[in-house]
């Protein structure tokens, strides 16, 4: 640090001398004043707007313990509390230390700063249960989980937590219906464990267990249901030639109630690079168990390239023309992205 200070002082004096040199012919005293004043003014300005503590080697050392890291992060967030990621890091650190109530409050700050960030909302919902003495999801946490599934129906952890919350509330049939779509997305071991939980929930509600996993046939699979909808999604060639698109961008294929709320009754998420894409939407793609595709007499279908990665519409999204059809549908529905409205 001493070497740095000496070099800084020499540089400041040299700059002051260069600035003052043309003044020597007018006033020697004025030139001397400039040479002395400029380094002093520079030091004062740095003290006001810079980070003087950064000159201290102790401040530049990596934290040696979690407590040290937490203390530094707390100081940084006190200086600038607008850092959403900082609050999430602090919440995780508090959680590691077992300080669950403080973790919940830190995650609440992060969620408030980023209301559209599903990760921040999900961590806050989970932290509310972790801070509860009985580890229960309260009404606010449940509302957060439902909103996360509205923003992104593919969020597996939100669906898992919502099912747990429903089981805690005695809504056993609803919990089973919430969990069932996860069976198709999990690995064999995880799916087997979840199937046991679903069967327990169904038994608690008076329902029979699910049929064995290997008992399904093409005729009784959800995709062969009378209300399943086959969809083909393509990208307009002229649009693709004019616009440079990220092949990793998210494409949501959505079925919703015609003229109803924007919440999907069925949705799938894919990569833009997978287009042209053929898929089938059915009840297993429903984000919420209360509204099923198979219960609708007609449905509106659309595809959306999401700039934000969320299923709900955002500025900058590219959306196909909606197609309204009666159910059951006999023919595949064609959706084209990038055509002029």
Would you kindly provide a written description of the structure presented here, covering whatever features stand out?
- With 341 residues, the chain is α+β, with helices and mostly antiparallel strands.
- It has 3 domains: 2-55; 66-169, Tetratricopeptide repeat domain (Serine Threonine Protein Phosphatase 5, Tetratricopeptide repeat), CATH 1.25.40; 222-337, Sandwich (Immunoglobulin-like), CATH 2.60.40.
- It is 46% helix and 13% strand.
- It has 12 helices and 8 strands.
- Strands 2, 3, 5, 6 and 7 form a 5-stranded antiparallel sheet that branches. Strands 4-1-8 form a 3-stranded mixed sheet.
- The radius of gyration is 30 Å and the shape is globular.
- Residues 216-224 have low confidence and may be disordered.
- Residues 229-336 form the Cytochrome c-type biogenesis protein H Ig-like domain.
- The chain crosses the membrane at residues 30-49.
- Keywords: Cytochrome c-type biogenesis, Membrane, Repeat, TPR repeat, Transmembrane, Transmembrane helix.
- It comes from Luteimonas salinilitoris.
- Residues 213-224 have a biased composition (Low complexity).
Describe the secondary-structure layout.
Layout: H1 2-20, H2 28-49, H3 57-60, H4 66-79, H5 84-96, H6 100-113, H7 118-131, H8 139-151, H9 156-168, H10 172-179, H11 188-204, E1 229-235, H12 237-242, E2 250-256, E3 266-271, E4 277-281, E5 298-306, E6 318-319, E7 323-326, E8 333-337
Parallel strand pairs: 1-8
Antiparallel strand pairs: 1-4, 2-3, 2-5, 5-6, 5-7
Transmembrane segments: 30-49
Region (Disordered): 204-224
Protein name: Tetratricopeptide repeat protein
